[in-house]
């Protein structure tokens, strides 16, 4: 009897909680100024949680686990999932950042892909990401090999190489902008700043990005290299393997999973590059392409930001953001799948 009463009470609380949430949502979307709608929403959520907690069922343990995960899932849903869904919805409208008046179908997508500045930003972002991934991982692996060798002061080197990653991107960007514009031009009399040349400005961003991020990736490689069994290295030394053979035949194959993680992080960071791009060049300098003036170093993230914030074209900016998410998801997942297959082969 107690179990039956407990079950009925739990279901009743869940039902009342669901009703309270629905009521609060109706009051909110109907434009009601009722100050208690927020309390109704919270009270409804609490009733559902309490009802699920006391609900007698064979899957009670799984329900309890889900309840403990609820705060994280709730935050993730309301900060990521729901905004993304609304973003996709707004990409088909004439949304101005506050409201929309009509659906315009695929017009934003057509405008986006026929825009020369967006297509150029897409191409230049892919070029930057490719070069940056290769350079960062090469430098990071080289530094990791140095910091795991028998060189004196290797702990100091680890800290020194990691420090640039602790500096904020905006601050770091303005510091390097000063270095490129003032310091380098003073050291080399009569020279022009790299940031004034459309072909060299992107190289400047790559150099700064690699300098900042290589130390972070280095620490991942250091962890991987330290996990290589000592007896395997000693056996290779006894067999007469030199440093290069040991590196390519033993160390690299045994840290294949480290490469997967490092390349994934570098890939995502490269495609989402924004702060350094904004602070160092702000997309400039301009170049002429097919008779149109285009910013030569405006990556996708900065292009989306300027479209929405500077030009007040929020619907178009949201459309670009949706395509950017899909592109990044496809590229990153493809990279992980390929890297996992390589791990098995190695």
Q: What does this protein look like?
A:
75% of the residues lie in helices and 2% in strands. By secondary structure, it is an all-alpha fold. The protein folds into two domains: 2-110, no CATH class; 111-345, MetI-like (MetI-like fold). Helix 1 (2-29) runs antiparallel to helix 2. The termini are far apart. 26% of the residues are buried.
What's the number of helices?
14
Determine the mean pLDDT: 89
At CATH level 3, the topology of the largest domain is: MetI-like fold
Q: Give the class from helix and strand content and strand pairing.
A: mainly alpha
CATH architecture descriptor of the largest domain:
Orthogonal Bundle
* Helix and strand run: HHHHHHHHHHHHEEHH
Give the strand order of the largest sheet, numbering strands 1, 2, ... along the chain: 1-2
Q: From the alpha-carbon coordinates, what is the Rg to the nearest angstrom?
A: 27 Å
Distance between the termini: 62 Å
* Biggest sheet features: 2 strands, antiparallel
Beta strands, count = 2
Proportion of helical residues: over 70%
What is the count of structural domains? 2
Uncertain runs: none
- Give the class-level CATH name of the largest domain: Mainly Alpha
Please outline the helices and strands:
Elements: H1 2-29, H2 37-54, H3 60-90, H4 107-113, H5 116-147, H6 154-162, H7 169-187, H8 198-226, H9 230-238, H10 243-254, H11 256-271, H12 275-280, E1 286-289, E2 292-295, H13 300-310, H14 314-345
Antiparallel strand pairs: 1-2
Helix pairs in contact: 1-2, 2-3, 3-14, 4-14, 5-6, 5-8, 5-11, 6-8, 8-11, 11-14, 13-14
